[in-house]
Amino acid sequence: MSATKxxxxxxxxxxxxxxxxxxxxxxxxxxxxxxxxxxxxxxAQLDALLDLLSEKKVKRIKSKF
Length: 65
Fold this sequence. Notes:
By secondary structure, this protein is mostly helical.
């Protein structure tokens, strides 16, 4: 994995971890469920991370004709 990709993954993971920690604290301290939009945002971040990790470079075959 390239250094740039590693940095992107680390950034995504830090953000997701922070958001999930805040949601967890809200559940423990205030006994409230997180806002649906916040949960969707974290889900979108997880999807973006999955896309980033599963990117596969497709080698193009050049025609010899």
